[in-house]
Amino acid sequence: MVSKLGSSSDPIDRYIFEHSIRLTDEQNEIIQYTSTLPGRLPRMLGSVDEAQFFQLIIQSMGCKRCIEIGTFTGYTALAIASVLPSDGHLFTCDIDDQYIRQDIWKKAGVDEKITVKLGPAVDSLKTLLEENGPESFDFIFIDADKANYLEYYQLAVELVRVNGLVAIDNTLWGGKVIDETDTSKETEAIRKINNFVRDDPRVDISFLRLGDGTTLCRKK
Length: 220
Hints:
Blueprint: H1 4-7, H2 11-20, H3 25-35, H4 48-61, E1 65-69, H5 75-83, E2 89-94, H6 102-108, E3 114-118, H7 121-132, E4 137-142, H8 149-159, E5 160-169, H9 185-198, E6 203-208, E7 214-219
Parallel strand pairs: 1-2, 1-4, 2-3, 4-5
Antiparallel strand pairs: 5-7, 6-7
Helix pairs in contact: 3-6, 4-5, 7-8
């Protein structure tokens, strides 16, 4: 099991996994496929507990229009699309479709609810803003290259409606954010977005120890 929670040796994590996580056959298929990828790529799989949490939020809010920034193999996209209503839609952005398992989306019966936007995500978000206008989406999930996190966030705040949510992944970055000796570009980018969101008067926030750190931002 590649999922962060499912592979943890912490007994509390194991207990949470065994007593809450519900995976479909298609979700398991994407998890297993991701585990076969070379190098450190399997570590990029979204957290299963985080994706399931998003499913609860999306259903509770009655979300119909969502954006995901960073598709990878398509696990979180599958989770989100599976709880959208029949007239709901997810736009998912990635630089290319090398690893996206759209065949599994089709098997799960959600492929028609997902549009893949290929190319630099900043450009895709600007296009979505031009085509749909501001405040036209209910839920936006940011989980892509860290260097552009702040720009993704700024565009997401424009795109999301009042009382909509922007969720930011990897905001703990494996604990590196509190390691003062770590001055790598990705760690600094995470610190930058965390500091910016903390002080952003446009949103209310909740910073959770979920997955690798998940920050929820409700647009006021």
